[in-house]
Write a structure and sequence with these properties.
single chain, four-stranded antiparallel sheet
């Protein structure tokens, strides 16, 4: 039972998930990654399939392990995120240049597994990604892709 152990975990952790995962929906994923006291890196993907094999595919896993164990180039680190009205932003530090930023958003409601998610371009400038939320957005996050094709994301948020 993760709830018995995660609160004591202090080591760096990488959390990868898909927006529509039937076994690890967004609220459960958030509760889990927010529980440990150590540093965390998130990598959320639109409609990433659920499964043991699919869960082993993301190259972010190897890069994350290699940054810790071998001192190799680390994944991007999100240093802040925020929203002012419909404008959303994230700041980041990256040793591997960020080549793409996307807003991943849904205007759907209802079960997390059935929500339709869409990507929208975000503007990159000087360690910052910024864009505007589509009208009616019910949940969103920013995804930052580095020159290696590795994705790090901000925490998903539900505007109120």
């Amino acid at each position: 039972d993760p709830s018995a152990y995660l609160g004591n975990a202090a080591m760096p952790m990488l959390w990868i998930n898909g927006t529509n995962d039937f076994a690890y929906t967004m609220p459960g994923w958030q509760k889990s990654y927010r529980t440990p006291v150590g540093p965390r890196t998130l990598s959320m993907r639109i409609r990433m399939p659920h499964g043991h094999i699919e869960g082993e595919v993301p190259e972010e896993i190897h890069a994350f392990a290699n940054q810790i164990l071998r001192g190799e180039t680390p994944l991007c680190r999100v240093t802040g995120q925020g929203r002012a009205g419909q404008r959303v932003w994230a700041t980041f530090e990256a040793q591997s240049p960020i080549t793409k930023a996307e807003l991943c958003a849904t205007i759907s409601t209802g079960p997390w597994t059935e929500r339709q998610w869409d990507p929208y371009p975000a503007v990159l400038q000087d360690g910052r990604a910024e864009t505007t939320l589509p009208d009616g957005t019910t949940c969103y996050f920013l995804a930052l892709t580095d020159e290696r094709g590795l994705i790090v994301s901000t925490e998903p948020e539900e505007p109120r």
